[in-house]
Amino acid sequence: MANAKSQTTISPHSQAPLCTRVYPNESELDEKLRKAARAQKEWQKVELKERVAIGYKFMEEMEKMKGDDMYLELTEQMGRPISQVPGEIRGFLSRAEYMLSIAESSLADVSLKDTDAPGFRRYIKRVPLGTVFVIAPWNFPYLTSINSVLPAIIAGNAVLLKPSPQTPLAAERFATALVNAGVPEGIIQVLHLSPTLTSYVVQHELVDFVCFTGSVVGGQAVERAAVEAPGFKGVALELGGKDPAYVRADADLDYTIGELVDGAMFNSGQSCCAIERIYVHESVFDTFVEGYVDLVKKYKLGDPTHPDTNLGPVVSIASAERIKRQVADAVKAGAKALIPEDLFPIAQQNNAYVAPQVLVDVDHTMDVMMEETFGPVIGIQKVSSDEEAIRLMNDSPYGLTASIWTNAAENPDSEKAFLQMVDQLNTGTVFLNRCDFLDPALSWTGVKNSGRGVSLSKFGYDQLTRPKSVHMKIKTK
């Protein structure tokens, strides 16, 4: 919760206040922005090799922080079971290592010497944008922020990191590790801001680029603020998803069911690339649903600080109520709920726990198949062909990822069918036999209401720099 001067983080599982941060005023923000601009002018002069070396020292600093205190801190902030927190830190470090490993090649000058005329030399440099404002979400506060913060700094930018009010401590740890590794304090600053102050920073003349990860509504607000600011400010938007899976007739069901339950339920479904709708070929529909329901029933919903819990609360009571309304509306419209709520008695009206739910007899007139749920709920719909599945998968305002589940190892025609579907799906990523995963070597991007821009891979560095062309006529006679 927040007022005009401060914010207080409420722990989802206990509903107890966890920490409070006071907002700066506009004059204090102005000084922080001037500090970033001054520091950036010097930071960009540091040799890239040295910046990369500092990046590896940062990884060492984060390794030192790993442990029960760090894991419990994140669980208390956003409610993920403590047993699952180490995975986020491993992913965070893996992405950092990859982006550091490709920094020199990604940021190298592009030589045109093979086509230079005699007496000429031409090349394209990649230069930093200046000050980058990163607005990070709460659901994976380490994994999402590393995508932009570290590459921006390595590329020579200064970064202002605004975490969600739900996870302020994660951003503070991140910044502390960077500074301890040798990143100047002006190059990484954590800002705790109200929505009004956030717009103020987006529009500030000393901010050159904005990276936002969050909801469609939040992304629209950031875009609007940037458009209304003087000049033409760049904005990258990683927004929501309603990510579909299609289970073909030859899928390995034992494997596929487990992967798709995890893809829908991990982090209580609070992932932009969580599986939120599944289309199953009619020939295996009943078997798939039966196995899926049996596995969901085995989940342990409870206190996320307990090591045997594998499903925690959602982020807030308000979020829990919204998710439950979506399920109730679907059932009222004809959907059938397959998980008895009494299997998960901790889920009550006055707390943030949501019982996992599997819905069948669903269709695209229902919000549960069209609007982002961001909770432990899945709709499963029967289809009769690849063509029907593709049509339904594309029938969405979102386009982040999609996954196809088929036995490509034993059936060459299935791999061929998959590759044809890749070209037909309107999404940023298409998976074969996996889901809810980011490979840092691949660009992370979306279409439609899932946003625009790109993070990770070489293209992530392209977004955080600009090309500068150098055209030399050396011989003038």
Structure write-up:
The protein is α/β, with parallel strands linked by helices. Strand 3 and strand 4 form a beta hairpin. The longest helix has 18 residues.
What brief labels describe this structure?
seven-stranded mixed beta sheet, six-stranded mixed beta sheet, alpha/beta, 477 residues, 15 helices, globular
* Tally of helical runs: 15
- Report the strand count: 20
Major β-sheet strand ordering:
12-13-14-11-10-16-17
Between the first and last Cα atoms, what is the distance in angstroms?
Answer: 71 Å
Structural class of the secondary elements?
A: alpha/beta
- Residues in helix, %: 25-40%
Whole-number mean pLDDT: 97
Oligomer category = single chain
Radius of gyration based on Cα positions = 24 Å
Q: Uncertain regions: pLDDT < 50 for 5+ in a row? A: none
Q: How would you describe the shape?
A: globular
Largest sheet: 7 strands, mixed
Strand content: 15-25%
Short summary of the structure?
With 477 residues, the chain is α/β, with parallel strands linked by helices. Helix content is 39%, strand content 20%.
